[in-house]
From TrEMBL:
Top-level taxonomic group: Bacteria
SMART domains, alphabetized: Lactamase_B (SM00849)
Its EC number(s): 3.1.2.6
Matches recorded under InterPro entries: LACTB2_WH (IPR041516), Metallo-B-lactamas (IPR001279), RibonucZ/Hydroxyglut_hydro (IPR036866), Sec-metab_biosynth-thioest (IPR050662), WH-like_DNA-bd_sf (IPR036388)
Species lineage: Bacteria, Pseudomonadati, Myxococcota, Polyangia, Nannocystales
SUPFAM superfamilies: Metallo-hydrolase/oxidoreductase
Designated name of the protein: Hydroxyacylglutathione hydrolase
Gene3D superfamilies: Ribonuclease Z/Hydroxyacylglutathione hydrolase-like (3.60.15.10), Winged helix-like DNA-binding domain superfamily/Winged helix DNA-binding domain (1.10.10.10)
A GO molecular function held by the record: hydroxyacylglutathione hydrolase activity
The species this protein was found in: Enhygromyxa salina
Enzyme class: hydrolase
Domain Metallo-beta-lactamase: 26-201
Swiss-Prot/TrEMBL keywords: Hydrolase
Length: 286
């Protein structure tokens, strides 16, 4: 069982069905460690899927390992479903960022933030990296031995990442988190290391820098379409800006795209390029 799901020495991944957004249908749970194990993102609410994770945990415990705790990367419903149940079943703590804890309906045992580490034995030291933007308390959870990181919803192996301002998302902060993680991975690669990201959704990403750089360039390209729509006067009403910025996207996806438009508009206002005009925007100058 353990070998079947191993992606590195001391790292196992299960994609478990969750109530997430299409095209994704599952959220990845990472189990990592040596003598002690950390369960990152036990997200599924479904009994059959929980049984799959229970079986993996049982096989690892049968090898003489112990459980050290549970980490959730952020508060969204497709990332937290089995955390309270596992805590109760194994009497282990849940770790989360304070801003995540404040948004959950269940209690978090220990607040963690940038710089938090836990020694799991066998050289496995796991650290938390604060990566807000998609969600206020978002964390990337990194095993320094394997250089396998659970990236949460910083990036995805399938689908896209939404930045919903109504739920604490912030596009400028998100872009900063992407750039910061790209710099972090580049430094590790310069040392001859080979980091890999386990995204919350989709396959393991063996080249995180390429993915992170693509996310930044894609978001900035979309932002430029929004900027030009407003500044060149093509449209300054929200729906017109949406149509101009997402003219390459089917209309049935526009309700989701509208979240990104709002997030980009707020960033452009914060950057001093635009001012709001009703739900839309106009240039800050001229």
């Amino acid at each position: 069982m353990a070998a079947e799901h191993g992606i590195a020495e001391g790292a196992w991944v299960l994609a478990l069905e969750t109530p997430t957004l299409p095209p994704a249908t599952a959220t990845n749970t990472l189990v990592v460690g040596g003598d002690r194990l950390l369960i990152v993102e036990p997200a599924t609410p479904h009994p059959r899927e929980r049984a799959r994770l229970d079986a993996l945990i049982a096989s690892l415990l049968a090898e003489g390992r112990a459980l050290a705790g549970i980490v959730v990367t952020h508060h969204h419903v497709d990332h937290i479903g089995y955390a309270p149940g596992l805590r109760d079943a194994h009497e282990i703590p849940i770790f989360a960022h304070p801003q995540t804890a404040s948004r959950l309906e269940f209690a978090v045992d220990t607040h963690i933030d940038e710089g938090w580490t836990i020694d799991l034995g066998g050289g496995h030291v796991v650290e938390a990296l604060f990566t807000p933007g998609h969600a206020p308390g978002h964390l990337v959870i990194w095993d320094r031995k394997t250089d396998v990181a659970h990236a949460g919803d910083l990036v995805a192996g399938e689908g896209t990442i939404l930045v919903d301002v109504s739920d604490g998302g912030d596009m400028g902060v998100y872009l900063d988190s992407l750039r910061r993680m790209a710099g972090h991975v580049r430094r590790l690669q310069a040392e001859g290391r080979s980091p890999a990201f386990v995204p919350a959704h989709g396959p393991v990403l063996p080249d995180p820098v390429a993915v992170l750089d693509h996310y930044v360039s894609h978001r900035l390209a979309r932002e430029d379409k929004i900027r030009r729509a407003v500044i060149e006067g093509k449209s300054r009403a929200f729906l017109g800006i949406l149509a101009a910025a997402y003219d390459d996207v089917p209309k049935h996806l526009w309700p989701i795209a509208a979240m990104s438009v709002e997030a980009h508009l707020r960033k452009l206002v914060a950057d001093g390029e635009l001012v709001r005009a009703g739900k839309g925007a106009r240039p800050a100058r001229g």
